[in-house]
Amino acid sequence: NAGVWYGMRPMKKRRVIELNGHSFIYFTKHSELEINSLRLAGYKQELENNGFSLNDDHIIVGTREINGEAKLLELLKKDPSIDSIFCFSDLIAFEVAHCLQQTNYNIPNSINLVGFDNLQDYIPYPIKISSVDGGKVESIKQALSILTHQIENHYSEDPIYKMVDVFYQEGNTTKPKEN
Length: 179
Prior knowledge:
Helix content: 25-40%
Order of helices and strands: HEHEHEHEEHE
Distance between the termini: 48 Å
Shape: globular
Largest sheet: 6 strands, mixed
Radius of gyration: 17 Å
Structural class: alpha/beta
Strand order of the largest sheet: 2-1-3-4-5-6
Strand content: 5-15%
Number of strands: 6
C-alpha cells in the first residue's frame, strides 16, 4: 500500500490571502477519503499560520445524500462576507463555479475560487480554475521509489506518506490583490 500524500505547503494559502481573501470555505465531496482529512488539516493550519481561521460551519461536505451546492449557497446567503472558496480538486471547483455562475455570483470579482491538483494541464475545462498543483511528477517519483524499495527489501501493509512541494497555478477564478 505505498501511497504518496500531496502535502499542503504554505504557498497556496498565502496566495489566497494575497488575493484579498478574508473569510474562507473548504468544499469537498470526498469525506470518506483520508487524503481529504489531510488536505483539510493542511489548509486549516496554513490559514492559522497566516492569522486566519476556518469555522467548522464553513467546511462543506457534499455527498449523495447531502447537496453540497445547496449548502454552499445557503452559507453564502447567510454570511455574505465569505470571499474565498478552496475546493478539494479542480473538478469540484469547476462544479462550484458552475453553481455560482448559475446564481449570478461573479467569479473572481465577488468571490475567489481555488482548486487543487491542476488537472487542467491535461484536461481542458471551459474556464481556467486557479489551482494548486500537487507536484504530480515528484509524487510519481516518490511512489516509484517507495515501490522499488518495498519490492527489493520488504513489503509493508502500512501506508507510507511523503510530503511533496506544491505550487500555485494562476487561473481566471481569483482576483489579484489591489495595491
